[in-house]
Amino acid sequence: YIHYKNAKIYGPDLGRSSRKHSKILLKSFLKSGGKVLDSVTWHHYYINGRIATREDFLNPDILDSFKTNAEEVLQIVNSTVPDKSVWLGETSSAFGGGTPSLSNAYIAGFMWLDKLGLSAQLGIDLVMRQVLYGAGNYQLVDANFEPLPDYWLSLLYKKLVGSTVLHVAVTGLDPKKLRVYLHCTNTHHPKYREGDITLFALNLYNNTKRLYIPTYFSKKQIDEYLLLPYGEDNLLSRSVQLNGYLLKMPNDETLPVLKENPLIPGHSLDLPGFSYGFYVIRNAKVLACI
């Protein structure tokens, strides 16, 4: 088996982690063979795709259920194989292939972006999305290889968000409905440098909410990347606009320019009802990001 001498071992790809028997299985598996794993893997879906509703995709309690599940998995891992990395080996919005007209629409982005933010906060090292292309309703590109909303959301996340997680808190509004995350900016982006920070936020209120950040940061140049649904289908749209411009491939091989919207220094961050976006604070000079 010389060809596999450098192969890695990942497992056990635990499903339905909230169930009692799944937790027992994970603990038993890790006690017996956890030390030989390079990373522990588990799967997560919020809801049953066959019966899920529009309201489920916007329910903050359902979004919070991921944190509960993840903390249970992490507790078992830390108590049996301490310091072992944990991967989310398969995940999307709803199991059973996703929910038609929901899992492939703008509305699914609330679950996806929140899961990325929470995973980073909790120390989950890698998240594998189900699925890029293929069966079901949760793919990132459609049958004609046209990108769907979660594709564009994933692309923006990868380009703007670095791996270092920073502390952030919301005051004055319900943090379950205005969900905010903060990272060092990805310095591989040609526009940004060490010390810059990226805030991303989800507004589950049905009206515009204004985010006021500390004066030191609000006086800086802030680049907005606001994603909104495109067209009359609103939250059920399979197309998105970035800062007012429809995102689409200009040809089969070229990604569009993801153009920022520079905000006036001192301006609040205005997030429309049921929307999400990214804000890069330039020249922030945050020491943790240098």
UniProtKB/TrEMBL annotation:
* Gene Ontology BP annotations: angiogenesis involved in wound healing; cell-matrix adhesion
What are the protein's UniProt keywords? Answer: Cell adhesion, Disulfide bond, Glycoprotein, Hydrolase, Secreted, Signal
Is Cytoplasm given among the entry's keywords? no
A Pfam family that this protein carries is Glyco_hydro_79n
Top-level division of the source organism's lineage: Eukaryota
An MF annotation (GO) of this entry: hydrolase activity, acting on glycosyl bonds
Give the EC class as a word: hydrolase
Q: Which reaction does it catalyse?
A: endohydrolysis of (1->4)-beta-D-glycosidic bonds of heparan sulfate chains in heparan sulfate proteoglycan
Localization recorded for this chain is:
Secreted
Please report which protein family the annotation says this sequence is part of. Belongs to the glycosyl hydrolase 79 family.
What PANTHER family does its record include? HEPARANASE (PTHR46145:SF3)
Q: What is this protein called?
A: Heparanase
- Source organism per entry reads Micrurus lemniscatus lemniscatus
